[in-house]
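step=encode ok
step=design start
structure_in=
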């Protein structure tokens, strides 16, 4: 962190220039998420030298978030391993609801940040900070020293992580870990994420029996829904899979609840139709959710639209329905509808025609070059997109590689993409930076791809940041399993041999088996699998489990990958069993479920051999 301290004064001066002129000095590189937060702070009229305190102790002190967070904060503070840091929990309005007890080492930090229960750290009041910026973006954030907008916070380092209610699926607060900038290190972010996850698990345990039944029915239906839209809800909460999320935007929770009321009142499953705002209609099956005679909610399963036509609103909403209109998350030549992919698409669309240096990072095989070609498809069509492979540079030599690249920079409209920046040797890297400094002012756009681990750019030289004026991270395939079906369809169309014959269909159970794989090589590995299967499919119209490679089928038989919600439920079971010292009756009572349900879940999650049950 010594470098951050040294750069703090320069960054503070750059912020002052930003406030006065709305732009940064050319020599200053600012992370995109911090630049965006500074812009929001500027738009809110915040003065960097003025801390606008807003205090509401009564409104923020009590509630389920504090009840769930307080034991976690108090316990985790003792595990910081000598780091003089404080854990602060704020609600969805940015108000502090709980913080670590002040010690001799942390009292100055808390006083500097004005941290006490009830203080609001909303970004519109305090500017860039580890609470308000998380609430504004709903993403984890690391803010070091002078990256804070206010003068008073610039000697601090903050790590903020969102806290989401596991049952209601909404952002309910933020866990912020703050310390003096000299004490910060790379351990803080994973520590904060782990603590936030524990708070979410406690929120799950605090949920009502009715809420857990709604979640349990959703998870059960999701495991067998073969990609169709499903919605599980009661009057207060709603859970949906990715396929149903756009439908909720079109129809709304109130109408879905009203539609399901017939099944709830009759205490029996019912089929029906649901009309969209466009006038098109979907067929539905509604099932009551409950235990015994008690009905607490409904599960709604939806099928394809019953009306016909070249273009329907449902086709726009349901993956694979043949939409004509382009969804907001669509990118030319690429496939995906998951929340993780939509976040990438949103960031790409916001990039627009800015022609700022761009870094695309992600694990091997996620499709970094494919994204670059999609972003600059118009330039590529004009023959003005040049791709240079940095892994060839050590073989060709720095001088020859740089000369070839320089010869391509004759047209200022050109886009130059350098693949695998991590492979460049130092001399070539410095020469590349010089080319950027020379040709970027003339209009040439430079983009680079970086194969990174979970700590991007941490092990790479500072010159990589020259590309990172805008950074797009492509998530690994294991973080966007919902995209498997559209990816399989797109890759099948790409590699199917018979041009005039229809592409074979991947059966739901086949897709489900693939979703249980780890995909360590990401989309590249998936494409290899598609080619292997198509080579042996012999013109069949459907791809079954039996047609998958034997090694993959054997891995699938060893167990499946749990979803995020399932992992949360499993963690809650383990925590309850640990707290009850293996007493299943006591654990069932703590969870608010019957012993029969507990035994069923233990078997479903394969916990019988787990150490907690011994």
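sequence_out=
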């Amino acid at each position: 962190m010594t470098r951050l301290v040294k750069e703090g004064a320069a960054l503070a001066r750059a912020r002052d220039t930003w406030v006065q002129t709305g732009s940064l000095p050319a020599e200053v590189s600012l992370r995109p998420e911090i630049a965006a937060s500074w812009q929001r702070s500027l738009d809110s009229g915040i003065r960097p030298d003025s801390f606008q305190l807003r205090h509401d102790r009564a409104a923020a002190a009590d509630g389920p978030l504090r009840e769930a967070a307080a034991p976690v904060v108090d316990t985790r503070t003792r595990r910081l391993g000598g780091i003089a840091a404080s854990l602060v929990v704020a609600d969805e309005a940015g108000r502090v609801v709980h913080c670590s007890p002040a010690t001799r080492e942390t009292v100055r930090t808390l006083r500097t940040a004005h941290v006490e229960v009830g203080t609001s750290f909303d970004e519109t009041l305090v500017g860039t900070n580890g609470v308000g910026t998380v609430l504004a973006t709903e993403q984890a954030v690391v803010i070091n020293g002078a990256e804070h907008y206010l003068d008073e916070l610039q000697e601090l380092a903050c790590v903020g992580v969102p806290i989401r209610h596991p049952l209601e699926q909404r952002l309910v607060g933020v866990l912020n870990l703050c310390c003096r900038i000299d004490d910060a290190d790379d351990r803080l972010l994973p520590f904060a994420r782990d603590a936030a996850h524990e708070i979410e698990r406690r929120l799950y345990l605090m949920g009502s029996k009715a809420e857990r039944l709604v979640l349990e029915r959703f998870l059960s239906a999701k495991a067998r829904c073969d990609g169709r839209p499903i919605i599980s809800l009661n009057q207060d909460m709603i859970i949906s899979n990715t396929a149903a999320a756009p439908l909720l935007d079109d129809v709304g929770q109130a109408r879905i609840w009203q539609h399901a009321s017939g099944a709830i009142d009759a205490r029996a499953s019912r089929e029906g139709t649901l009309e969209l705002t466009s006038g098109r209609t979907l067929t539905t099956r509604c099932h009551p959710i409950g235990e015994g005679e008690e009905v607490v909610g409904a599960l709604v399963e939806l099928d394809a639209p019953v009306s016909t036509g070249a273009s329907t609103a449902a086709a726009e909403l349901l993956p694979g329905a043949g939409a004509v209109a382009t969804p907001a998350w669509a990118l030319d030549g690429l496939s995906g509808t998951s929340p993780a992919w939509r976040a990438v698409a949103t960031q790409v669309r916001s990039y627009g025609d800015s022609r700022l240096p761009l870094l695309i990072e992600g694990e091997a095989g996620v499709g970094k070059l494919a994204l670059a070609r999609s972003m600059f498809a118009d330039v590529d069509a004009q023959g003005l997109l040049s791709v240079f492979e940095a892994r060839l540079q050590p073989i060709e030599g720095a001088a020859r590689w740089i000369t070839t690249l320089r010869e391509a920079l004759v047209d200022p409209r050109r886009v130059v993409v350098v693949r695998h920046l991590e492979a460049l040797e130092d001399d070539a890297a410095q020469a590349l930076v010089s080319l950027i400094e020379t040709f970027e002012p003339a209009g040439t756009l430079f983009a680079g791809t970086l194969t990174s681990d979970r700590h991007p750019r941490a092990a790479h030289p500072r010159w990589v940041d020259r590309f990172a004026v805008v950074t797009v991270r492509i998530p690994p395939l294991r973080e966007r399993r919902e995209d498997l079906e559209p990816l399989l369809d797109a890759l099948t169309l790409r590699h199917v041999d018979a041009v005039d014959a229809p592409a074979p269909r991947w059966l739901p159970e086949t897709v489900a088996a693939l979703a249980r794989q780890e995909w360590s090589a990401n989309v590249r590995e998936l494409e290899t699998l598609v080619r292997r299967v198509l080579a042996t499919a012999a013109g069949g119209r459907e791809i079954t489990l039996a047609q998958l490679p034997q090694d993959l089928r054997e891995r699938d038989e060893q167990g499946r990958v749990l979803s995020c919600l399932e992992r949360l439920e499993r963690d809650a079971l383990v925590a309850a069993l640990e707290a009850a010292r293996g007493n299943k009756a006591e654990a069932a009572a703590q969870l608010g479920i019957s012993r029969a349900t507990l035994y069923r879940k233990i078997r479903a999650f394969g916990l019988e051999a787990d150490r907690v049950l011994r």
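step=design ok
step=annotate ok -> Residues 71 and 199 are 9 Å apart (CA to CA).
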